[in-house]
Amino acid sequence: MSIPLALLEENARKIRALEQELRENELLSDPKIQFLLKTINEARNQRIFDSKLEHLFEFLKMFNTDAQRTYDSFRPYGPEVLLNQGDLHLLDQMDGVKFSIDPDKLLTGALVLGPQGMGKSRLITSICKQLSIIRPDIKVLILDPKNGFSSLSVFRHLDLGKMSFDLSSPLGVEQDNYITEFMPILANITSVIFGVDFFNRAVDDSLSQLRGYGGDTTLCLKDIYESLAKFKPKSFRTQGYLDAAKFGLSQLLGPSNIFSCRKGLSLDWLFGENTVINARCLTGEVECKGLLNYLLFWLYQKYRNVSETKVIKHLLIIDDSTRFVGVPNTFHSEKRTSPLGHILAVLRSAGVAVMFATQIPSQIDPAVLALSRNMFVVGNINGENNLRVLQSYMSLTPEQKSSILRFQKRESLAFISGSAWSRPVHGWVPFVPDEAEGDVNITDCSNMIVPWHSLTEVPKSEAPKPIKQVSNVNTALDKLLLDCIHYPYSKVREHIDRMGVSVRVYETAVNSALQEGYLLHSMSGKSVYLIPTKQTYDKFNVPVPYERSVSVEHSFYVGLAAHLSKQCKGLKVQTETPAGQKGATIDVTLINGKAEMFAVEITLNTGNLLSNAAKLQDTSYKKIVWLTKDAASAKAVKAYFNKITSLPNELIDKFEYSHFSKFNSFLKKGIV
């Protein structure tokens, strides 16, 4: 029923008055308001007109009530079309609009600021949990000196007190140059101005001892300290420089064994998975700075020559970062440039992002402040020096700066450089519920570390000894390779028990096999697998079981899925089943006692999901299982198919998602 002519003029008057009030309150550009106004103007009867007009009045009333209760100096708020620019949800603006960004925006570095207990850890936890789902390719490492991230159950947890690092260079980097280039950074960390020459001489001496050592080992900072102790300067001044170098390095070594070992933890292994390092054992500022600088230096050496990218590969999160990147110590009012500036700039261009969390922003290294382009303030920040950092960073007005003093718990201010909304966003950090309390499962990595002993305590090898040692290593290597061929799905301890060797001999054999290309190291959840390559089978004249596979690792996991399936009674298992298309195959086909068919597709990444799914159309499989190496990858695959629109719904309804650690229980519950 159309609107009577007598009411049209009255309705137009109401609309004009309402638009004026919306304009005065800066609400006219709101997308919801625009939609309601359009609906009112197009209303065909009075009932619809009155209903939509009432909605507008309720919206305006709610806005006026909120404005009377709380005055917000950060108005105007950002519109939804400019705030919702990606999949990573950072916070909810005060008006309820979600602020989401592309995760790669964090590549330019970030600062998370706020007092203890106000929500910094919840914000970081929220970001980490989201990244593990939407971007499992980003590997996150958290340095946690306060044990504040034990709730991240999907992460691997390590205890720094049981870890040690040597000075092994990344693959492809010359070892001697790698150690020498670290010495100026070491001098900066230990505040040794005139002792760099002593560090370089100690490196030369340690390398000389290493070449004469009769075993497989590496250098560490403890070796350099031992070499410093042998020097005997001729003048009082140089003796002072040497004493300063020894004292500074002793501060870095500290009471722990973080930099004292004959063989340390592999950093490739450390950065290969989402990891939380419990660093409560760190007590000194020099130890903290030394650890962070060394980890960043190793990444810098690994990626310094790669092509520039705008996609994040690694994200490092440093909690309580003032101890790790505090203002450098200076002497005689002499200002020194921090080495972190150049390192962070190179890492950014290589896809490595770093996020620093602290309560005292004014005490952060100026190089870190200058190169961190994104900022989050969670809770109230006190102190004029701290507020001045925030004001200059986000171009705050004096009124906005003062309002930060009154922030409540989880109340946040976020500034993202390069986002569509160029102003700070005022809102609330997403609520992350506490997980059920329980013991954190600490991954034991002690079998990867060889304790330290002095190189001078071991006699130099005589001429015949290296031949004997190489023979022993080759014998252990052959045992390892044969064991991996006959028992490809065994765990580390099972290999060691069958070989009948020590952990040290086993680790030496593994390293040799990896370097020579006989084995591939792969992780599925917390399980470590050593995958024999075609070169290994050729060495022993054994037929290669996966010549037709796209990749050795993919073929290995196809075999693992078939092996696990065969453990279930009543299941017929077939691999590489033709799918109808030319050359296309199904990784594993399962048939249960009811003659129902199930397809299992192994996926190591999300790159070819659409093409793999397309080959499964018009097939008679009851269910299609996407099997991944870990839970995070399974969630990423599920998220991908939930968003896809090019596949028919009846096909997607058949999809199930699992990972190897849960595959046995999945088979028993869903297939057998």
UniProtKB/TrEMBL annotation:
<dbReference type="InterPro" id="IPR008571">
    <property type="entry name" value="HerA-like"/>
</dbReference>
<dbReference type="InterPro" id="IPR002789">
    <property type="entry name" value="HerA_central"/>
</dbReference>
<protein>
    <submittedName>
        <fullName>Type IV secretory pathway, VirB4 component</fullName>
    </submittedName>
</protein>
<dbReference type="InterPro" id="IPR027417">
    <property type="entry name" value="P-loop_NTPase"/>
</dbReference>
<feature type="domain" description="Helicase HerA central">
    <location>
        <begin position="91"/>
        <end position="153"/>
    </location>
</feature>
<dbReference type="Pfam" id="PF01935">
    <property type="entry name" value="DUF87"/>
</dbReference>
